[in-house]
């Protein structure tokens, strides 16, 4: 049996982005798992060290600017409004430190990582899908985050069962988890175009994230606005996310 790669979950746990059920599951995994506990503690220390390093680097750069300013004043033999300049430097240090600690760089990739969450379909399917050989294998691999392993089983199932929207959605998310966002966009768009299904809200949200990952900001904004103007379960998330792209 393939072991779970906890890296993604550790990042979400540290960032406080887990919902109650996911947090409960992760903390249950932590209990008695000394290896996972050590990895979590190490990641926290590394994150703290990076923040301190960035702040120190910023302060060193600002100090260098101040030294250059003083040298120019000596050469010119003139005077400058030193107190105002010092105040500006101090403000920049404080603002820069606060920015590094609270936000960090907001690249497309970082926005994507903060918002991408796997849609889990736990347990075996109770629908007709369970009667198809290989579908439960796909589901089991998917729920273990073995997205690459699940893909051929989803493909085989969908060849025999075109229009199975739940499987289409899981297949699309598995493609995203396997870093194949181009094909994922096609699958998710197909779900959206089939308007008579229960998975449109999720497909629209994941499609917006695909556009963000591939740095198609205009397409991402259009997709998020579609979500905002609907009764989607992702409406509030879309409102927050679209502000980061404008």
Overview of the molecule:
With 246 residues, the protein is mainly α. The protein is built from twelve helices and no strands. It is globular. It starts with 6 loop residues before the first helix and ends with a helix.
Low-confidence regions: 99-105, 123-128
CATH class of the largest domain: Mainly Alpha
Number of strands: 0
H and E string: HHHHHHHHHHHH
Largest sheet: none
CATH topology of the largest domain: Serine Threonine Protein Phosphatase 5, Tetratricopeptide repeat
Domain unit count:
2
Describe this structure in a few short sentences.
With 246 residues, the protein is mainly alpha-helical. The protein is 72% helix and 0% strand. It folds into two domains: 1-104, no CATH class; 114-245, Serine Threonine Protein Phosphatase 5, Tetratricopeptide repeat (Alpha Horseshoe).
Break the fold down into its secondary structure elements and pairings.
Blueprint: H1 7-15, H2 20-30, H3 34-76, H4 82-102, H5 108-115, H6 135-143, H7 147-160, H8 165-177, H9 181-193, H10 200-213, H11 217-228, H12 235-245
What are its keywords?
246 residues, mainly alpha, Serine Threonine Protein Phosphatase 5, Tetratricopeptide repeat, 12 helices, globular
């Amino acid at each position: 049996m393939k072991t779970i790669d906890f890296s993604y979950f550790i990042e979400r746990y540290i960032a406080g982005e887990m919902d109650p059920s996911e947090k409960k599951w992760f903390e249950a995994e932590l209990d008695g798992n000394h290896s996972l506990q050590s990895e979590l503690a190490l990641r926290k220390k590394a994150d703290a060290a990076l923040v301190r390093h960035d702040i120190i680097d910023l302060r060193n750069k600002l100090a260098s600017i101040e030294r250059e300013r003083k040298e120019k004043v000596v050469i010119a033999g003139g005077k400058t409004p030193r107190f105002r300049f010092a105040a500006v430097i101090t403000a920049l240090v404080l603002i820069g430190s606060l920015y590094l600690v609270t936000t960090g760089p907001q690249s497309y990739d970082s926005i994507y990582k903060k918002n991408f969450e796997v849609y889990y379909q736990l347990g075996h399917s109770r629908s007709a899908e369970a009667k198809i050989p290989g579908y439960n294998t796909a589901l089991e691999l998917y729920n273990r985050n073995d997205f690459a392993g699940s893909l051929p089983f989803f493909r085989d199932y969908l060849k025999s069962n075109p229009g199975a929207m739940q499987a289409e959605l899981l297949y699309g998310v598995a493609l995203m988890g396997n870093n194949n966002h181009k094909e994922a966009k096609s699958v998710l768009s197909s779900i959206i175009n089939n308007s008579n299904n229960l998975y449109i809200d999720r497909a629209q949200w994941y499609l917006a994230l695909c556009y963000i990952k591939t740095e198609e900001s205009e397409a991402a904004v259009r997709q998020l606005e579609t979500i905002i103007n609907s009764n989607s379960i992702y409406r509030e998330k879309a409102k927050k996310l679209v502000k980061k792209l404008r």
